[in-house]
Each structure stands twice: as C-alpha cells, then as structure tokens.
C-alpha cells in the first residue's frame, strides 16, 4: 500500500509518498508560492531533485502538478495514480470533536469548517487541500490526522482555564495543544527503543524548533502540553512570545496605541527569540550571533532554555516522576548545546548528560550517562509516517 501524505499551508504544500510495506518514503516534495508569481515544485527522490517552475493559481493546480511529478517517466516513483491507495491530510485543529484520526466525509468537512474560528490561519488551507485532492482523486479514501487529537486525553484540570465557565461552553476556550502527531510518534518510538510498553512509562517530550512545545505523556496518553488555546502559549519560540502576563496585552495596546490585531501580530510574529535578540527567528543565526559576542542573542537563548527546563520540571511533578526525556524537531535533533543547556541543573531529577554521546546531529540516540536514572534520548520526528500509519489503519478497516 502506498499512502500520499499532504500538508497544506496558505501558499505552500508539503507532500510525501510512503510505501507502507517498508515504512519508507519513496518521494517527498514542496510546492511553494501557490497563487503567487514564481510558483515552484521541488521533489526529492533518493537525494536527487526534480524541479518544476510553472504558474499554479490554486491548490488544485498544485496537487495536479504533484500527481504528475509522482508519475513522471524519468523522475517519478509510480506508474499511475492508481497505485496511491489513500491520502492522509495533516489538519491542525479538530477541536473537541476528534480524539483520533478519521475517514473524511461530509460530516467531517463540516466539523473542520466549524474549527476555522479556532485555527483561522491553518484550517482553511488544510480544508482547501482536502477539497483539491477530492476533486482530482474522487474515488481515493481521504483521512484527516489532527495535530490536536493526541492531546484530547488531557484531564479537565489540565485543559481548563480559570475563566468564567460560560466562555468554555460558548466558545470552546480551553487548552487544545499542537504538535500532537510529533509528540505521539516520538513517545511511541522511544518506548520501542527502550523495549518497554508505553503504558508503563512517564515521558516528557520536547518538540523544539521555530515552533516549540513540550508534552507530558503518561501511560501512552498526553496528560498536559505547553501550547494552549492557540500555538502562542507555552515555550518561547522563533517569533512567538510564549507564556506572558495577560495584563501585558491591554497595557501594550494602550501604551503603543495598537489595535488588537496589531498586538496579536506582535506576539505571534515579532516576539520570541527574534524579538529578544533582534537578530533572527532562526536558532542557527542566534547561535552564530552568540559566537560573535552578541549579548541579546545570548539572552534570547538563555530564556528559551530556561523555559524548556521549567516545563520539564513541571511535567515531572504533574506525573509524579519521569522515566524518559525526548528531544525532537529542528533544534532538539541538531543542537547539542541546547540539549545540554536544557538538561543542566536537572541532576536532582536523575538526569545526567554524556557530553561525548551528545556530540552529534540529527540521529536517533541515547545521550544520557549509564547511571542516569532518567534516560534522555534524541528521536528525530516523523509526522508524515505517523499520518501514513493512521491512514493505513483506517483504510484497512473499511
């Protein structure tokens, strides 16, 4: 069985074709500048790039080009679209409706539309991508895999905000969390690596990249996560501020004479390590600036590491201990200095990092010492494979 995994943004589309017989990616690609001048598709197969530059006015144009690239005689990986058994779609927000992935039908599409108010930047392009695929592949099963679904197992004490309860009833204001597919994948994978049932483990997973979140996973279930009603809450990120005193919002609005929308933009797109450092939202640029003696860049990274460390401590307390800490995503997988900085000071929990083991990038590896009672791992995330596995399971059950 071959599964096409699709992740649509407002003007972009990421995709992978995965052979489920071996759980390996046959092709992966990115379509950029959909509806904008300079549209381009870049597909990689065995490290070789296949590039197509041509106008794409809509996501349906982009999907059509993706399918053509996959079957292209020289650079493609399948002979016809009939080899694609199903399509798995990454959908950011499923609200409280979905605690697991689902086969897409009219009822699901209606629920996704209702969730647009909860994810106005993300759900609309996700819906557009689904509709584009349905138009071109009307007889192919489609599955929605939600970023929020994994965190639906949180207890109410973890997901409720101390606001008037009517706001939850009327507007669904509560913690939803994001990155659920990544947290689920790495927690399941680390359990396989240590050879223990995930139902017997307490795990803190740290998805650290331009967008970042931590999750507390107890007995295979998410019991808390750092992102909240939106992806803005929690850790300091590339351009997002993370946790702040909510009274800062009206204060800034008045002091700087800003609209609510302008404050939202400031917190989401002008803050985080970018706002603190004044350098960049890219952690590689921040690290480079630190090497050149930039004190604000150092401060930005220190604040970021400190916030991650606090969440690890908080989630260890919430679960009554932890067995495993997992680093994943761009920074978590590739920055030995950040992993070491986050774990420094956690010796009281039983965390000891082996600097020699930790000196690498982008691999699956144990980085704690032999006598560390809490084991620390780096597990590269694979959200696409998780989406493909969910899709296969649902289609197999049809």
List the helices and strands and how they pair.
Layout: E1 2-8, E2 13-19, E3 24-32, E4 40-45, E5 48-53, H1 59-71, E6 84-91, E7 102-103, H2 106-114, H3 123-136, E8 142-146, H4 156-159, H5 165-171, H6 180-194, E9 202-207, E10 213-218, E11 221-225, H7 248-255, H8 260-269, H9 272-277, H10 283-291, H11 295-319, E12 324-328, H12 329-334, H13 336-343, E13 365-366, E14 375-378, H14 383-396
Parallel strand pairs: 1-6, 6-8, 9-12, 12-14
Antiparallel strand pairs: 1-2, 2-3, 3-4, 4-5, 7-8, 9-10, 10-11, 13-14
Helix pairs in contact: 1-3, 10-11, 11-13
Describe it.
Helices cover 37% and strands 20% of the residues. The protein is of the alpha/beta class. The strands form two sheets. Strands 5-4-3-2-1-6-8-7 form an eight-stranded mixed sheet, with helices on both faces. Helix 1 packs across helix 3 (123-136), helix 10 packs across helix 11 (295-319) and helix 11 packs across helix 13 (336-343). The mean pLDDT is 94.
């Amino acid at each position: 069985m071959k599964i096409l995994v699709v992740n649509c943004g407002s003007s972009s589309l990421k995709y992978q074709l995965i052979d489920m017989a071996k759980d390996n990616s046959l092709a992966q690609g990115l379509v950029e500048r959909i509806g904008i001048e300079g549209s381009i598709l870049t597909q990689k197969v065995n490290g070789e790039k296949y590039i197509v530059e041509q106008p794409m006015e809509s996501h349906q144009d982009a999907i059509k080009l993706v399918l053509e690239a996959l079957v292209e005689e020289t650079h493609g990986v399948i002979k016809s679209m009939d080899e694609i058994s199903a399509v798995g779609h990454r959908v950011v927000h499923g609200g409280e409706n979905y605690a697991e992935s689902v086969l897409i039908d009219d009822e699901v599409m209606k629920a996704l539309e209702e969730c647009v108010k909860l994810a106005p930047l993300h759900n609309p392009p996700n819906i557009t991508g689904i509709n584009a695929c349905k138009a071109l592949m009307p007889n192919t099963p489609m599955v929605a895999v939600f970023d929020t679904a994994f965190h639906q197992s949180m207890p109410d004490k973890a997901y409720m905000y101390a606001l008037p309860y009517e706001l939850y009833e009327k507007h669904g204001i509560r913690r939803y969390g994001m990155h659920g597919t990544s947290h689920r994948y790495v927690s399941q994978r680390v359990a396989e690596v240590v050879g223990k049932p995930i139902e017997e483990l307490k795990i803190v997973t740290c998805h650290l990249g331009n967008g970042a979140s931590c999750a507390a996973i107890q007995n295979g279930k998410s019991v808390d996560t750092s992102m909240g009603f939106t992806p803005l809450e929690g850790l300091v990120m590339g351009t997002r501020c993370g946790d702040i005193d909510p009274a800062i919002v009206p204060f800034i609005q008045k002091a700087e004479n800003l609209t609510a929308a302008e404050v939202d933009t400031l917190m989401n797109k002008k803050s985080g390590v970018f706002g603190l450092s004044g350098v960049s939202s890219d952690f590689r640029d921040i690290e480079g600036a630190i090497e050149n003696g930039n004190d604000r860049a150092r401060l930005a990274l220190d604040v970021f590491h400190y916030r991650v460390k606090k969440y690890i401590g908080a989630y260890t307390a919430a679960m009554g201990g932890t067995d495993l800490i997992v680093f994943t995503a761009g920074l978590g997988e590739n920055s030995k200095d950040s992993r070491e900085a986050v774990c420094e000071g956690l010796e009281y929990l039983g965390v000891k990092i082996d600097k020699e083991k930790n000196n690498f990038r982008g691999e699956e590896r144990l980085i704690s010492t032999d006598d560390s009672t809490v084991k620390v791992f780096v597990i590269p995330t694979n959200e696409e494979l998780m989406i493909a596995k969910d899709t296969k399971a649902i289609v197999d059950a049809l």
